[in-house]
């Protein structure tokens, strides 16, 4: 319960705002295509989140774990386009640290005025979990997009989701957090985002909350 309390003893509600939110894409790399449980859902959800970020001008930070061996971010995710259109706010960083919170990433995020981070990627029980805990420790509001994170084994994913929620992270889905960011059907980019939701269709995978 302590992890779910904000400053002053108030319960952390996990509300998000476009101006102070960033999306993290953790190691969605080509080498993992055939070894991750429901990888298709991870790629689809990551691509959807990146497309929404581009539409709403939300920065996207992607990492690649030792790309010399594990290759680069899957092309379908769309990070190249996101970086090119972001004016320097979105970026891709190589890493060997399991957590995404490398000195380079932390320096970049510090310039963005970010208070909340929504995470998709791999693997839930290793890099995603360590990133989540580091962000929570640094005072960020952390949202784990459950239809966009996975591991090689479903049990590792399930236990990690439970641990992150107990630590104070909010479990959510891509569609849920996107509409929370929009807040109003009269928002300027609502139709564009709604079209992305419709074009995404049904979840291609079977990633449960726990």
Protein described:
The chain is an alpha/beta fold and 210 residues long. Helix 5 packs parallel to helix 6. A 6-stranded parallel beta sheet has the order 3-2-1-4-5-6. Helix 1 links the parallel strand 1 and strand 2. It is globular, with a radius of gyration of 16 Å. The chain has 8 helices and 6 strands; from the N terminus they run βαβααβαβαβαβαα. Helices cover 40% and strands 18% of the residues. It has a single domain, classed as 3-Layer(aba) Sandwich (Rossmann fold). The longest helix has 18 residues. The two termini are 19 Å apart.
Named CATH architecture: 3-Layer(aba) Sandwich
Q: How many angstroms separate the termini?
A: 19 Å
Unreliable residue stretches: none
Strand content: 15-25%
How many distinct domains?
1
| CATH fold description | Rossmann fold
């Amino acid at each position: 319960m302590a992890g779910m309390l904000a400053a002053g003893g108030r319960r952390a509600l996990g509300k998000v705002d476009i101006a102070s939110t960033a999306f993290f894409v953790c190691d969605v790399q080509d080498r993992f295509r055939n070894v991750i449980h429901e990888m298709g859902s991870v790629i689809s959800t990551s691509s959807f989140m990146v497309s929404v970020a581009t539409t709403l001008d939300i920065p996207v930070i992607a990492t690649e774990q030792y790309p010399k061996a594990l290759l680069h971010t899957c092309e379908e995710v769309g990070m190249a386009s996101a970086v090119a259109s972001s004016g320097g706010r979105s970026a891709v960083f190589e890493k060997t640290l399991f957590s995404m919170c490398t000195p380079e990433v932390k320096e970049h995020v510090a310039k963005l005025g970010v208070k909340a981070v929504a995470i998709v990627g791999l693997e839930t029980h290793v890099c995603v979990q360590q990133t989540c805990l580091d962000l929570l420790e640094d005072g960020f509001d952390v949202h784990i997009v459950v239809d966009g994170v996975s591991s090689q084994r479903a049990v590792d994913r399930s236990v990690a989701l439970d641990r992150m929620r107990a630590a104070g992270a909010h479990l959510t889905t891509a569609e849920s957090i996107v509409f929370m960011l929009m807040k109003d059907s009269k928002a300027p980019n609502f139709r564009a985002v709604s079209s992305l939701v419709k074009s995404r269709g049904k979840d291609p995978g079977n990633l449960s909350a726990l």
